[in-house]
Amino acid sequence: MRRIRANAIAILTVAWILGTFYYLWQDNKPQSSPSSSALLCPPQVTQPPRAEGQSQLLGGLDEKAYLAGKQLKPGDDPYRDHAFNLQESDRLGSERAIRDTRHYRCASLNYDADLPSTSIIITFHNEARSTLLRTIKSVLMRSPPSLIQEIILIDDFSSDPEDCQLLSQIPKVRCLRNGRREGLIRSRVRGANTASASILTFLDSHCEVNTDWLQPMIQRVKEDHTRVVSPIIDVISLDNFAYLAASADLRGGFDWSLHFKWEQIPIEQKMARSDPTQPIRTPVIAGGIFVMDKSWFNHLGQYDTHMDIWGGENFELSFRVWMCGGSLEILPCSRVGHVFRKRHPYDFPEGNALTYIKNTRRAAEVWMDEYKQYYYSARPSAQGKAFGSIADRLTLRRKLNCKPFRWYMENGCCMERWELIEPLLRQQDLCLAISAFTAGSKVKMEPCNAKEPRQKWKPKGTALQHMVSGLCLDSQTPTGPPVITQCRPQMASQSWEPQIIT
Ligand code: LR7
Ligand code: MN
Q1: Would 205 disulfide with which of 127, 178, 258, 329, CB 3.0-4.6 Å?
Q2: At 55, which helix (H) or strand (E)?
Q3: How confident is the model over 246-268, as pLDDT tens digits?
Q4: 286 lines ligand 1 (CB under 6 A)
């Protein structure tokens, strides 16, 4: 009898432990997993509004006529004009249900009842009618109406001026048309300058916002106006327009050529994240979809309006926000879909490469201090290319009393660290090399080559010694570029924080 009771207790204990584990596992399981949850909880789908609401949403705009006004002709390449499958986009119509891709715990969060309203700013250049209308409609469908002060469209001198006029018939929508092609940076500034709400929300012209996308972002900015926040950006397939959930473990990053990329959240931060609804601090934002307090946007100097067409403004804004007293975060409970493309469907009047170089050079020259040398090593073609005057932006930086780039690099939020894989000191594909074998010589980045004597280093206490010259890496002053000097490992300027490589 006692034996049986002991067994029963043991079985119950095991069952209880298994049950606990199962519960915890369920809790962490990505909601998108279709298999085990299929029977109990059908995937949540964000429904379009009921039929009677639809006509009101668009006011005077005759949607059918608008969409029919520009359609693919039989035999045309559906990818030609927009670098996505226009036929599929048109076929979808202006609204559709999309899956609620948030972690299920997001649905039970509460937001203040008195959140401030926002001006939505969307700039476009020759956007397809169906994608642009879906962007606008998804905002009207999936945002609490009281939070949408207005939707400001900036038509960046698209070939057809009619789109702007027609879309202005939609309630809350205003459309401004540029008299010449300005690019997305100056267009956004124009939009921000006419916005009447205290909070700005930027969107690309081919997005679909998801359930409760706006409240988490406005809440964070309301609590602290120096926060600049963005959603997790889901993927809308450029081929079949399927709405796909993006990973919730990514943040923004870049390489030294100032090329944006998504990167995994560092492992120690990931382990520390017990609550999947919490914000993720990010070194940079992708650039197109974010919410920012309007006076903070203005205080920080809006954008660098000498940047043209496309590119680089996301780094410039991100560096500036961190270095001048703000912060950047991604909010996992806010989801917005975006059509990611493989090429630009529009022309760059000065050429794509030159424009990107001009814009990123401006960002590097104004914000990156001695680290700009890494940019030039990674992008040698940038040297000598025109980038205009940066005097105004340097004055701005001084006036705002912004921290050095070194601070940005060292405060955890940044790039992959240096790796000493003897004898190379590498960061991705580039290695640290001395420029000459004499004391005082500068160091630079170049493609790794383990046979190159100028690239060979070894640790010497907390210092790093160049093997051939015997000199040590020295940061001199915080603002000057690093050099090699006589080894004095006890000196702070020669002391480098170790990192264990496994
Ligand atoms: O001359 C132009 N004028 C414009 O108004 C060129 C573009 N545009 C508009 C365009 O119609 C679109 O609405 O500007 C917006 C962005 O242009 P895209 O969609 O061609 O850019 P992208 O999605 O490839 O680029 C990302 O990086 C850009 C760098 O300048 C901008 O910051 C984009 O807003 C940004 N998009 C996103 O962050 C969405 C997520 C993608 C990622 C990563
Ligand atoms: Mn885009």
Answers
A1: 127
A2: helix 51-58
A3: 999 999 999 999 999 999 887 76
A4: yes
Q: What is the mean pLDDT of residues 195-218?
A: 98
C-alpha 339 to ligand 2 mean position (Å): 6
Beta-carbon contacts of 259 under 8 Å, excluding residues fewer than 6 positions away, are: none
pLDDT of residue 41: 40
Backbone φ, ψ for residue 235 (5° rounding): -105, 125
C-alpha to C-alpha distance for 20 and 245, rounded to whole angstroms = 28
Q: What is the DSSP string of 172-227?
A: TEEEEE-SS--BHHHHHHHHHHH--SSEEEEE-SSEEE-TT-HHHHHHHHHH-TTE
Q: What is the pTM of this model?
A: 0.79
ipTM: 0.98
Residue 497 identity: E
The alpha carbon of 311 and the centre of ligand 1 are apart by a number of angstroms equal to 8
Q: Which residues surround ligand 2, an ion (CB under 5 A)?
A: 204
Amino acid making up residue 261 = K
Peptide bond into 447 cis (omega under 30): no
Q: Which residues pair with 124 in a beta bridge?
A: 155
